[in-house]
Write a structure and sequence with these properties.
The structure is a single chain. The chain is mainly α and about 240 residues long. The protein is globular and about 50 Å long. The protein starts with about 40 loop residues before the first helix and ends in a 13-residue tail after the last helix.
């Protein structure tokens, strides 16, 4: 089978939106009142999926997963990664990240004012222990969980056999019918997809159409049939 790799944008890079200067003009601005016009979780999830696909091909990027101290340029350590983990955990349980917005600037304002903007939607069921773990990830750096032992001993992971976790069978084993089976991937019927350029020499690579917008595809080594060498005709 295959996996699709997606960049979560968990670290800063050289892109314009990953530099603090990009947000300098809006750091002093107060966030909007996000609770005045609440949006239900289904609409937020749909908006996030649509924007995420667009951002994948954008030069702007997204600050959704970056810890506040990274933007402040006041120094940070590996605890910034635990913030990112909390955001990813929130997205996996809720359906979208906690600071999603229509543009990176608005997301930045939400991250920098997370005490007011970080909320759990009441219509999405989530356990109290899961909430507690996420909130201990997404908090000030000096209060954030900072070691593997602290994380492993959290009540959310009660009953997990960490010593033999790699020996346990996978919780879900997808059934793959063929090399180009994409039935286990999410569908985005309302998104305009970028179609690939026509194949050279009139060869239509059907499996490429199933992985549109994913630029790293290594099918040739798996599907190509060995070419038979033809000997030159004898002149005798």
């Amino acid at each position: 089978g295959h996996i699709k790799l997606s960049d979560f944008g968990l670290c800063t890079g050289l892109k314009k939106a990953h530099r603090t200067e990009f947000y300098r003009d809006i750091q002093s601005m107060r966030p909007q009142d996000f609770t005045a016009n609440p949006v239900d979780s289904k609409r937020r999830a749909e908006t996030w999926k649509r924007n995420r696909r667009a951002l994948a091909y954008s030069t702007v990027g997204t600050p959704d997963y970056i810890a506040p101290e990274v933007f402040k340029q006041c120094g940070y350590n590996n605890k910034a990664d635990w913030w990112s983990l909390g955001v990813i955990m929130y997205e996996m349980l809720i359906g979208y990240p906690p600071f999603c917005a229509d543009n990176p600037q608005e997301t930045f304002r939400k991250v920098m004012n997370y005490r007011e903007t970080f909320v759990f939607p009441p219509e999405v069921p989530i356990s109290n222990v899961a909430k507690d773990l996420i909130l201990k990830f997404c908090t000030d750096a000096d209060r954030r969980l900072g070691s593997l032992d602290e994380i492993r001993h959290h009540s959310f992971f009660m009953g997990v056999d960490w010593d033999h976790i790699r020996d346990r069978p996978a919780a879900y084993q997808p059934r793959i019918k063929s090399i180009d089976d994409t039935s286990n991937f999410d569908e985005f019927p309302d998104v305009d997809l970028k179609l690939p350029s026509p194949a050279k020499d009139n060869e239509v690579q059907v499996h490429d159409w199933l992985f549109i917008n994913y630029t790293y595809k290594r099918f040739d080594g798996l599907t190509a049939k060995p070419k038979l060498k033809t000997s030159a005709p004898s002149t005798n």
